[in-house]
Amino acid sequence: MTRFSRVIGTGGYLPEHIRTNDEISKMVDTSDGWIYERTGIKSRRIAGPEESAASMAEVAARQALESAGADPSEIDLIIVATGTPDRVYPSTGCLLQQRLGIRNCVAFDIQAACSGSIFAMSVADQYIKSGAARTVLVVGSEICSRVVDWTDRSTCVLFGDGAGAILLQASDKPGIISTHIHSDGEFEELLYLPNPQSASESNKNEAGFVRMRGNEVFKVAVNTLGRIVDETLSANAMSQEEINWLVPHQANTRIIAATAKKLRMSMDNVILTLETQGNTSSASVLLALNEGVQDGRIQRGHVLLLEAFGAGFTWGSALIRY
Ligand code: UT7
Fold first, then answer.
1. What is the pLDDT of residues 252-297, one digit of tens each?
2. Which of 4, 126, 164, 195 has the most beta carbons within 10 angstroms of its beta carbon?
3. How far is the CA of 278 from the centre of ligand 1 (A)?
4. What local confidence, expressed as pLDDT, does residue 2 receive?
5. For the chain, what is the mean pLDDT?
6. Whole-angstrom Cα distance, residue 230 to residue 234?
7. What is the DSSP-derived secondary structure letter of residue 82?
């Protein structure tokens, strides 16, 4: 019997505080008009002083468990995707395990920047398909507001905080149809987050803030995401019309529109959260998925194409029959 990873629950968490483009315009030389036109972002959520990747992950994870009617004790494996962990170690996965009050499962983190949740889903799917795990909790949680330089207008307008979660369980019905993940370390300098404390002598004076050559990243992202659409469809001998929903990483509406065009898909079939959430890095795809499920747009049986692109570069997709 073929074993698939079926989505049995989704969850999400957004911090309470909303930071609008107008507020950022008072901090750096920018405007609501520029930000909205170039990115599609109007506002983003900013975590409170006592919040962290682990605390946000817990809320999203509990919501995913509740929507599945599952108990934390059923979880065999926790994978957290984050580039902004509370501590380098223990992993945020272990911190989440502690918060969920469970001990008999494996927990670890995956770091693939904005593609993190797709990478984590791909790993989860391999564990479930191989029979090594039955129930896997995947969470993407990011506190981007603490790693952006609020004096750098080219990056601070883009990012937001939040967490998304998905609970996957072995089933004889799909489920995840396929995942496709890729990396190319050649592009280190176009998008990176320094870690001065453990960097080499020549890099240790860089501040721990996101650095991005946005326009160059943009061009690679559009081309690469076009290729991942082709790869995903051809691996499954599917045509564009069979996809009901595009659930993209939320970096820029212009990038998302290019991917939708490649799928000959109307923007009405794209789950967009960018306007009110900004780019929440590894949380964004799972937050968008949760939103589409919660508001009833995504229905059982629909085919979803999840995709993301991020630092590394890393990129990937997950084709799911919900
Ligand atoms: O999530 C991981 C992957 N990340 C991405 O996929 C992000 C990809 N990149 C992008 O989304 C876009 O490149 C940005 C939104 C970051 C930038 O948009 P752009 O259209 O590529 O603008 P640009 O970087 O080419 O800059 C155009 C102009 C520049 O001024 P000059 O040189 O033309 O005078 C910038 O200095 O816009 C200026 N600029 C700004 N102006 C007002 C840059 N940031 C701002 C700002 N407000 N916040």
1. 999 999 999 999 999 999 999 999 999 999 999 999 999 999 999 9
2. 164
3. 14
4. 85
5. 97
6. 6
7. -
CB-based burial label for 131 (10 Å; 0-12, 13-18, 19+): exposed
34 lines ligand 1 (CB under 6 A): yes
Give pTM, 2 decimals.
0.98
> What percent of the chain has a predicted confidence (pLDDT) above 90?
98
Is the beta carbon of 315 within 6 A of some atom in ligand 1? no
Distance of CA 259 to the CA centre of its chain: 17
Taken in order 186, 159, 263, 294, is the CA torsion positive or negative? positive
- pLDDT value, residue 144: 98
| 57 pLDDT higher than 80 | yes
Q: In one letter, which amino acid is 240?
A: Q
Q: Is 210 in the pocket of ligand 1 (CB under 6 A)?
A: no
The finding on whether 283 has its CB within 6 A of some atom of ligand 1 is no
pLDDT of res. 89: 98
Q: What is the Cα–Cα distance from 145 to 49, expressed in whole angstroms?
A: 11
Residues forming the active site: 114, 249, 279
CA of 163 relative to ligand 1 center, distance in Å: 25
Q: Whose CA is nearest to atom 41 of ligand 1?
A: 30
d(CA 239, CA 152): 42
Distance, C-alpha 119 to centroid of its chain = 9
**Ligand 1, atom nearest to 157 Cα:** 48
Average of pLDDT values for 148-174? 97
Position 87 scores a pLDDT of 98
Helix H or strand E segment including 6: strand 4-13
Regarding the beta carbon of 166 and ligand 1, being less than 6 Å apart is answered no
pLDDT the model gives residue 113: 98
**Ligand 1 centroid distance, CA of 35 (Å):** 9
